[in-house]
Structures are given as structure tokens and as C-alpha cells.
Amino acid sequence: MIINKIEPQGFCKGVINAIKIVKETLEKEKNIYLLGEIIHNKNVINELTNLGAITIPTEGKTRLELLDEIESGTVIFSAHGVSPKVYEKARMKSLKIIDATCPMVLLVHNNIIKKINEGYDVIYIGTKNHPEVEGVLGISSSINFVSSINDIENLNINNNKIYATNQTTLSKYDIENIYEQLKNKYPNILIDNKICNATTIRQEAIKNQPKADLCIIVGDKLSSNTKKLVKVSETIAKIKTIQCEDLSSLNMDDLKNVNVVNISSGASTPDYIVDEIIDYLKKK
Ligand code: SF4
Question: 72 FRET partner, CA 20 to 30 A, in 106, 163, 206, 244?
């Protein structure tokens, strides 16, 4: 079997930074709570749990609700970011706050706050119920949320100053269509595409992957950037694609009649998980 490892893949800077923050905190303190999954990868969460971190699992709850489960100690906010209300509630509970929000997400928060203060109506494009989106929408109830191109016709904004921005891990190919439609509806709109560099270069690599019988994208089911890599591979590179979390979740039936396989991973997938799958495939 020919195996092509598509680069770049694996941890982005934001994920490396979040894991480093948690590990450094664990060396110094006890009673460390992670508000939701620090990144979307079970193996990393298990590793941090073994080191002493306590993850408060999201389980459909908001970050604000999850705070009810922490009475004292240190709370670490995940790489996805939280809304100002979560900060306020954590302070009211006298928790020590450590923020592992990715700087790219923080930039989106700051830009939105600035534009609202300048009198703009804000449009934010993202995926429903994703923690990054929850954090941004918690900034102000006035933010207009768009989760798909179909939402644009329902927008009813009467302001010459409109600012549009987005979740950092969306598909760079989908967002171009959404922004084009928004520009048609609001010609003066100020567009600020904030898909992060890590997401962009991983999607471009998948778009330009060599021909193969199968592409395997390794990453957690909840990982937004992983799901977008799958979509780019299927719809733009037009290669049969599967997503798996690790070797144990790889469906062997998918490998039947496969002679050439491409493999990549989301920005929250540790390298060793991909390497394990590659080692297995090499023996096939
Ligand atoms: S994918 Fe982008 S926004 Fe998300 S943590 Fe990584 S660098 Fe930050």
C-alpha cells in the first residue's frame, strides 16, 4: 500500500499553547478544573486527567452552566474562548482564572467589541453550539448569527456600518460563498475573514493532495477543523474520505481494495495517533 502523509497536519500553535498552560499549572497547583474539553481530543484529555486535571465535560451545557459545577480552586478556559459573562461569573465565585484561549480567537473577540463600540452591526458566521461560537455570541445579544448561506435572507439590518467576521476553523471554501452573498445583500459591508492560518494551510494541503483511493482524516468527532478537512477532501479534492479518532476506530472494511491512501489530521490530534495508523497501514 502507498501511504502519503499530507503535511502540514497535527497540533497548531493554539493547541500547543493550551496544553502547555495546563501542564505548567498542574506542576504548581492542585484543584485544577478545565471548563469543557480543553481541546477536542480524548487522548489529550485523558493524559491531562492522569496528570491531575479535572475536566468538566460539556455534555450539551454552556460554559456558564459548567461553572456551577466548580466551587473553588483554579479554572482554566479552553482554547475555544469564553464570553465576558463566564469571566464575570468565575470572578464572582472567587475562582482563580487561567485563560488558555487561542490568540486568534481572542483577536476575533476584541475586533467585535471594537466594532460594536464604533456603531457597527456585527454579523458572525459559525457553527451552531460550538464552544468558540458560544463565546463570541455571549459578547452581545445584538450580534447577528449566520450558520449557513440560507440564514442570509433572514438578516434585516438597517445600518450603513456592518461588520462581518467568522469562526476561525470554518471551511475557507464555504466562507467565500457566504461572504459573496453578504456582499450582494449589503454592498458596503466590512468583511474580516478570520479563518486562522493553521486551518487555511491544512485545508489547502488537503485540496491539493495527490490522487488516492482513500483519504483518512484523523481527529475527534467534535473537532470543527477536522470535520472541515473531511469536507474539503470529499467535495473539493473529490476523494473518498473517512474520519477516525484513532487506530481502534478505523473501520477495516474501508481499506478493502485500497492501494493508495492519503492521511492527515486535525489541529487537535497528537502526532503519535497518526503514526500508529501509518505503522499499521505499512504492514497491510
Ligand atoms: S485551529 Fe486556529 S484558532 Fe483554533 S486553536 Fe489552532 S490556531 Fe487557534
Answer: 106
